[in-house]
Structure formats: structure tokens, C-alpha cells
Design goal:
Rossmann fold; 2 domains; 8-stranded mixed β-sheet; 16 strands; binds adenosine monophosphate
């Protein structure tokens, strides 16, 4: 255990009265400005695309009834079996901090009678998810996802659109991704396929990892996408879902693939792709950095069709399709590729001050410049002019305004050209037009 970690086995010492400091819990991390600038950039790209396609933002609570996820995601999934932060609250209610958002969006669709809205209802979300997984690279206990959900249409174009928009967001961030895609069919074709799959694996049971031995009886589809080498080797020759699709499911899938081809989305057919959650049917897909990277790198995102979820949660049968992307993973990849978010705020003018009276007035001067549209910077907590000018230099501003005791009395301000070092006194009342004129000569 690290020195700073608090431990309830520590014996309190009379002499040591100093308070222990705290650290984030395992698998959780603070997002500092170095990372949050990526978050803001990604948020802007997602919002831009969502708005142009008429997709509205939905915010659902972080805490939901535990049963929502048990019923929605499925009892025998990793998430529900091992990873939910669930507890009984002071009022005796069984609650869970959301591990994903699709079940919540489906709940909201039913709760707010969205069935009576024009269909399909198109929603996007952005927020924290919590899963008590074993923390490792790219796997946190608290992470962020954004996602799109299109509810109320079984048209294959909706699946293609969801995949296309995911691809476009990645492109807007400068990431070239590939989209593995598969169809896992409907309940009927899946029942048949399940039997064929179990028949294939049963004689090879001893060669599977311990988890897959259990999966074979509980959730045999998950054996297909197990990351263990020995299980992957067996899945190469396993029967493929696409060979067991009914006519409707096959036609649906062929149309999705055809639309994506038309849209030039780099898809790869991946027969072993099944996704881990029970609510998926027909189209499933993931987002990978590249085909070669996929074995080493976990998926950036994924999604698919979930035609049965709304009914499973007590609503009318309503087809739907969606996706979710992990923001921390995207940031990690952007960093590793040396991609920086574009600088959105480049100050042009620095406001420096000298003396108590000037300090008092400089914030108003700053506001006057800011509200007139000039990009300004300051460090009013510093008193020394040298330190302020150093910061102005570092920020790369074109001009610094220096307000001192004398200038306040005269109603003037000193304008310093940072390139030449020339300084001149200007009328405080004309500071905005003067600066605008000077700045215009740079553009
Ligand atoms: P899922 O909801 O499991 O389909 O995950 C969708 C995406 O969320 C994944 O592709 C990851 O990018 C991200 N994600 C899921 N679990 C985690 C985690 N434990 N830590 C970080 N990102 C995650």
C-alpha cells in the first residue's frame, strides 16, 4: 500500500496528529486540464454532428433502480454479475450507479411517453459510467462515454446511420478507424445458432479457459469474443452467426452492409463479434483503431440494434439502434498519435497592473476588452511587472496594457507592443478602438 493511502488498520499515534491525505479510489481518476481540453474538443465534435442530424441531448440520472440494469443488460453478463456499483440506500431501495446509458435512455423513452413523439426519436448522451472492473490499461472503474440512440425504427438505414456518424466523429478528430460488423440475428435465428454453437464447443470444453467453460452453459455467444488465445484459436473454425440468419435478418444485414459500402465506411465483416450485452440483436459493431491493432488494443466504441429492450423494460415493442464510445480511450489514442486539440483561445492582449489602485481598476478594464470581443489574458494575483510581462510573453500576446498609479490619475494606459518593445500612452476611453485598429493590421 502506498504511504498516502488511508488504512483502517492503522493504529492512531498520540504523537502523530497530522491528518492523512486522500487519494482517488482505485480505477478512478481526476481529469486535469491537460486531459479536459481533449474532452471539450471531443464534446464539440459530437455536439456539432448531433445537432446537424437533429439528435437531441438527453441527460439521465447517474443512479437508477438496480433492476433496470439486471433486466436490461442481462443477469448473466459480466457487467451485472460482477461489475455494478450497487447498494441499498437509506430508504431500503436497491440502486445502482449506471454502468452504461442505453438502459437508462430506454427507461426514459417509456417514462416520458416518447412513443407519441415523431418517430424515430434521436437522442445523444455524454456522461460518467461506473463499472467495478479490474483496473488495467484502458479499463477504469469510472469512465466517460458519449452515445447515440435512435429509437422507433427497424430500418437498416438507421443502423448504417449510427455507424456512419460514429465514423464521422472519429474522422473529425483525425482518427482513422475500422468498423468490424456482424449480425447476431433475432431471437429465433439465435436459438438455432446457440444450439449449433454449443454442439461445436462441447467436445472442446477442456480446451477453453475457465470463464468460457461457464459461459458455454450460461452465455455461449460470449465464448466467441473471449480474448484468451486458446479460446480465440477455437473460435476461428466455430460456426458463424451469419450462416444461421433467417431471411428477414439476412436481408436486413445485407442492406446495412450495402448502405455502409455506399457511404464508404471502412467495415470489416467479423463473424466472431457478438458484444457482451443481452439486449443486442441483428446488427452489432465495434470501433477499432485498425485491424492489426485490434488484438492488442481494446475497442474505442461499439453498439448495435436492440429491438427487444424497450419491451423488456415494460414498454411496447419498439425497435432501436445505438452506439457508445469511451472517451478516455479516445483521448489515449489521440495522445499516442500526437494529435492535439486545436487551440480555441489564443489571447491577443495582456492586462498588467502596478499598484493597489490600478489592480482595483484592471479587472473592469479586462471586462471591457473581453466583452468587446478582444481575447485577453491577465494574472491579477501577481504584483511585480516583470512576472506579468514574462507571462504575457509566454502567452504570445501582441500587446500588453500596463495600468499604473500615474495612468489612473491621468485617465490613460500604457500600450506595449510585445514584438518591438515600443511603449506609448493612450487615452483609457479610446482603448478598445485603438486596440481593435492595431489588431486588425495583423489579420
Ligand atoms: P460498452 O458499453 O461495454 O459497449 O463499451 C463501449 C466503450 O466504452 C468501449 O469501447 C470503451 O471505449 C468504453 N469502456 C467500456 N468499459 C470501459 C472501462 N472500464 N474503462 C474505460 N472505458 C471503457
Amino acid at each position: 500500500m502506498s504511504k498516502n493511502k488511508t488504512s483502517n488498520t492503522d493504529t492512531p499515534s498520540k504523537k502523530n496528529t497530522s491528518k492523512k491525505s486522500f487519494q482517488t479510489l482505485r480505477g478512478m481518476k481526476d481529469i486535469l486540464p491537460e486531459d479536459s481540453k481533449y474532452f471539450l474538443w471531443i464534446f464539440d465534435q459530437v455536439r456539432d454532428i448531433a445537432e446537424s442530424y437533429g439528435i437531441g441531448l438527453i441527460e439521465t440520472p447517474i443512479l437508477e433502480p438496480t433492476d433496470l440494469f439486471v433486466r436490461g443488460i442481462g443477469k448473466q453478463t459480466d457487467i451485472v454479475e460482477k461489475e455494478m456499483f450497487s447498494f441499498v440506500d437509506q430508504g431500503g431501495d436497491k440502486v445502482t450507479i449506471r454502468p452504461e446509458a442505453t438502459a437508462s435512455v430506454a427507461r426514459a423513452y417509456i417514462e416520458h411517453g416518447m412513443l407519441s413523439w415523431p418517430q424515430p426519436v434521436k437522442l445523444w448522451y455524454w456522461g460518467k459510467m461506473l463499472r467495478r472492473e479490474r483496473p488495467q490499461s484502458g479499463r477504469l472503474r469510472e469512465f466517460h462515454q458519449f452515445g447515440f440512440e435512435i429509437i422507433g425504427s427497424d430500418d437498416p438505414m438507421v443502423d448504417a446511420q449510427i455507424i456512419f456518424l460514429t465514423y464521422k466523429i472519429m474522422q473529425s478528430l483525425g482518427l482513422e478507424v475500422v468498423i468490424p460488423i456482424n449480425s447476431i440475428g433475432c431471437n429465433e435465428c439465435r436459438a438455432h445458432y446457440r444450439k449449433v454453437l454449443v454442439d461445436y464447443y462441447k467436445p472442446k470444453r477442456s480446451e477453453l479457459c475457465d470463464d468460457c467453460k461457464k459461459r458455454l452453459t450460461k452465455n455461449p455467444f460470449r465464448v466467441l469474443d473471449c480474448k484468451e488465445n486458446k479460446c480465440q484459436a477455437l473460435s476461428v473454425d466455430a460456426p458463424q452467426t451469419v450462416d444461421y440468419l433467417c431471411d428477414d435478418c439476412r436481408n436486413h444485414f445485407m442492406k446495412v452492409v450495402d448502405y455502409l459500402d455506399e457511404l464508404d465506411v471502412p467495415c470489416i465483416l467479423k463473424p466472431t463479434l457478438v458484444r457482451g450485452l443481452d439486449y443486442y440483436n441483428r446488427t452489432v459493431f465495434e470501433v477499432w483503431l485498425s485491424e492489426e491493432e485490434s488484438s492488442r488494443q481494446s475497442a474505442l466504441g461499439g453498439g448495435g440494434r436492440y429491438d427487444g429492450l424497450i419491451e423488456m423494460l415494460g414498454g411496447r415493442p419498439t425497435p432501436a439502434s445505438g452506439m457508445a464510445v469511451g472517451i478516455e480511450r479516445v483521448v489515449k489514442v489521440l495522445r499516442s498519435q500526437g494529435i492535439e486539440p486545436p487551440r480555441t483561445y489564443q489571447p491577443e492582449v495582456f492586462v498588467a497592473q502596478l499598484g493597489e489602485e490600478a489592480k482595483r481598476k484592471s479587472l473592469l478594464l479586462f471586462e471591457e476588452l473581453r466583452t468587446s470581443g478582444i481575447k485577453v489574458a491577465e494574472n491579477l494575483a501577481k504584483d511585480g511587472l516583470k512576472a506579468q510581462l514574462e507571462l504575457a510573453n509566454k502567452l504570445g500576446v501582441k500587446f500588453t496594457l500596463i495600468l499604473g498609479q500615474k495612468e489612473i490619475l491621468d485617465g490613460t494606459v500604457m500600450l506595449r507592443d510585445m514584438e518591438s518593445g515600443n511603449q506609448e500612452i493612450i487615452d483609457l476611453k479610446k482603448v478598445v478602438p485603438t486596440l481593435k485598429k492595431r489588431l486588425a493590421s495583423f489579420s
